[in-house]
Design a protein that fits this description.
This protein is α+β, with helices and mostly antiparallel strands. It has a single domain, classed as Beta-grasp domain (Ubiquitin-like (UB roll)). It has a five-stranded mixed beta sheet, covered by helices on one side. A hairpin with a 2-residue loop joins strand 3 and strand 4. The chain is globular.
């Protein structure tokens, strides 16, 4: 069973305006790689040069921040929902 990935509005131009896509990955890192293979350019928006999730991008699995789980090694199971939330700055 695939995992659902919620795509934020700023990244939808890369996913042909899809707000929800499905992946068949075992970890968050694999999910990002699968997104990159299907939607070139999305990975550079999500991870830095070292391959770590960017500071201003929050990734959740079933509403739990992966930074408090296993980051990119966070395992995924059937039916999980991944949310990508870009941080909002303001003043």
């Amino acid at each position: 069973m695939p995992k659902k990935v919620r795509i934020p509005t700023p990244l939808r131009k890369l996913t042909n305006n899809a707000d929800l896509v499905e992946v068949n990955a075992a970890t968050i890192g694999e999910a990002i790689a699968e997104l990159q293979s299907r939607y070139p350019g999305i990975q550079e928006r999500l991870v830095d040069d070292k391959g770590e999730v960017r500071r201003f991008v929050n990734v959740y699995v079933n509403e739990e921040d992966i930074r408090f789980l296993e980051n990119k090694e966070t395992p995924l199971k059937d039916g999980d929902e991944i949310s990508i939330i870009p941080a909002i700055a303001g003043g």
